[in-house]
Design goal:
By secondary structure, this protein is an alpha/beta fold. The chain is built from seven helices and eleven strands. The protein has a single domain, classed as 4-Layer Sandwich (Purple Acid Phosphatase, chain A, domain 2). Helix 1 packs parallel to helix 2. The two termini are about 25 Å apart. About 35% of the residues are buried. The structure holds ligand LP5 and manganese (II) ion (MN). Manganese (II) ion binds next to loops.
């Protein structure tokens, strides 16, 4: 009885080492899981299900093998791959979850989310997020030819990298206010998210309530395993 949680792998054709680590994980630990939850930024960038790459094909094939073998897989989108569509997820056999989803995790009321929505001090990002989550803007973007979408996403990435250098660590973290509000409003026991790339276990009120932050996969893997008794957040060298 174990469920796995991963996020921020940022898979792309430029990083075959991370893709290799993902494939190894899918063919080892994941095969005996009760469930696998992917909490966003599985891909470095996603500009439409019709832009097929070696990475997108490999991931789909690994996920499909796992889901066909009876392990349910769930996906919450991140700020890089919010355009992952129904067509691709269907090919993977993966179920899309709402941006903020509450599950019963072996008796613990747990909220799952990517995490970006709680970075409310980062007003420029939240404004950007509202725009790119607008279904009309997304539809218009997806009507563009592939090369134009790739180019726009690459410009956005450059802009984001530049902006991030000027932002403080606290601006790019979740706020205590957003965390507390969700714990209280839903009477949560646990919250699990990624996005900030600061793997840790926080205790916002007491030992009973935990906020678990998953790490990215740039230098090492980061996997949270949860059983009915305990949890383990660990990383392995790529
Ligand atoms: O991603 P990361 O870690 O660098 O930083 C994030 C926030 N940045 C983003 C932007 C993405 O990196 C861009 C890639 C998305 C491509 C998706 C497909 C295209 C969709 C098109 C529309 C439907 O998410 C960053 C946060 C940081 O996390 C920490 O939380 O700070 O936020 C920003 O950098 C936002 C900027 O401050 C403002 C907006 C930048 C984009 C401006 C667009 C200009 C590009 C011109 C294109 C013609
Ligand atoms: Mn992210």
């Amino acid at each position: 009885m174990v469920s796995y949680f991963i996020a921020d792998l940022h898979l792309s054709d430029e990083r075959p080492d991370i893709l290799g680590a993902f494939v190894r994980f899918m063919r080892s630990e994941a095969i005996d899981a009760d469930a696998l939850y992917i909490l966003g930024d599985l891909f470095e960038v996603w500009v439409g299900d019709d832009v097929i790459t070696h990475t997108s094909q490999t991931v789909a094939s690994e996920l499909k093998k796992l889901t066909d073998s009876g392990v349910p897989c769930y996906f919450i989108c991140g700020n890089r791959d919010f355009l992952v569509g129904k067509r691709y997820l269907r090919a993977c056999g993966v179920q899309l979850l709402a941006d903020e989803t509450i599950i019963d995790l072996y008796g613990r009321k747990t909220m799952l989310l990517h995490g970006d929505i709680m970075c409310t001090l980062d007003e420029a990002y939240q404004k950007f997020r509202r725009k790119v989550h607008n279904p009309i803007i997304q539809w218009l973007f997806l009507c563009l030819p592939k090369f134009a979408r790739v180019k726009i996403a690459s410009n956005m990435r450059s802009h984001s990298k530049m902006q991030n250098q000027t932002k403080s660590d606290s601006i790019m973290d979740v706020t205590e206010q957003e965390v507390t509000r969700r714990f209280e409003q839903h009477n949560l026991q646990w919250m699990i998210h990624g996005h900030t790339h600061r793997p840790a276990i926080h205790y916002p009120f007491n030992d009973e309530r935990q906020r678990i932050v998953l790490g990215d996969w740039y230098q090492q893997s980061s996997v949270l395993s949860v059983t009915d008794k305990d949890l383990l957040l660990e990383g392995d060298k790529l």
